[in-house]
């Protein structure tokens, strides 16, 4: 049995006051959600205030990134300890925007995954191909490198405490979503990679989210696919009603 995990990635949106308001709206809208694990990822700046809003609710707190070192001269960065103290449950790692603009590599993803796990938080490991890679027939090669890189040195027990987000880069923020079939095929391939690394039991237990222009209109179709176990939502997570429009179809789906 896999959990459906749906997380809102707010990216660099919302002031602290706006974040508190949106978090309160999500808590109210999600109060009857039982089967889906719901999480929201505000900016670092808003995490502490949003944590207060989420206390006692069924909505989990996620951070958008982390540094792998404990502390020190890393201007602009935030450590896993700092996130843990605030009550963060999930940490998004290796988002394509981090990879494209801020030099994230499979190696830094791996270091961050290990650090986050050492403090009992759950990494959401983002992978996905660009359009050029897909068109050039390199989809499987790219996903293989990213998965093997992210999971290097992780035991089966550790792998069980991860979530993957498959996010085709060409679908992120573009309004173009992968079709149900395209997404399912990529997810099945990612699961086959996990099977190679850890065997079928473990692979069948790891939730693989889809991300990339997921919205209420396409959520039910995507979530119904065999190997799609949730979503990482950008634009559509910035309003409570559209976010819940993605979460609600997940309530009745069993994996
Ligand atoms: P999007 O972003 O839903 O706006 O495409 C998804 C993501 O980047 O996680």
UniProtKB/TrEMBL annotation:
| Membrane-traversing stretches | none
Q: What is its EC number?
A: 5.3.1.1
Q: Which CDD domains match?
A: TIM (cd00311)
What is the name attached to this protein's record? Triosephosphate isomerase
Biological role: Involved in the gluconeogenesis. Catalyzes stereospecifically the conversion of dihydroxyacetone phosphate (DHAP) to D-glyceraldehyde-3-phosphate (G3P).
Name the domain of life: Bacteria
Cellular compartment(s):
Cytoplasm
**Active-site residues from the entry:** 95 (electrophile), 167 (proton acceptor)
What pathway does this protein act in? Carbohydrate degradation; glycolysis; D-glyceraldehyde 3-phosphate from glycerone phosphate: step 1/1; Carbohydrate metabolism; erythritol degradation; Carbohydrate biosynthesis; gluconeogenesis
User: Which organism is this protein's natural source?
Assistant: Candidatus Accumulibacter proximus
How it assembles, according to the record, is:
Homodimer.
Q: What's the main place this protein lives? A: cytoplasm
Question: What Gene3D superfamilies is this protein classified in?
Answer: Aldolase class I (3.20.20.70)
Task: Tell me which UniProt keywords the record has, alphabetically.
Answer: Cytoplasm, Gluconeogenesis, Glycolysis, Isomerase
Molecular function via GO: triose-phosphate isomerase activity
Which GO CC terms are listed, alphabetically? cytosol
Task: Spell out the reaction equation it catalyses.
Answer: D-glyceraldehyde 3-phosphate = dihydroxyacetone phosphate
Residues recorded as binding substrate, renumbered to this chain, are 9-11, 173, 213, 234-235
Q: Which InterPro entries does the record match to this protein? A: Aldolase_TIM (IPR013785), TIM_sf (IPR035990), TrioseP_Isoase_bac/euk (IPR022896), Triosephosphate_isomerase (IPR000652), Triosephosphate_isomerase_AS (IPR020861)
The entry assigns this protein to a family as follows: Belongs to the triosephosphate isomerase family.
Q: Which residues form the signal peptide?
A: none
- Main EC class the enzyme belongs to: isomerase
GO biological process terms held by the UniProt record:
gluconeogenesis; glyceraldehyde-3-phosphate biosynthetic process; glycerol catabolic process; glycolytic process
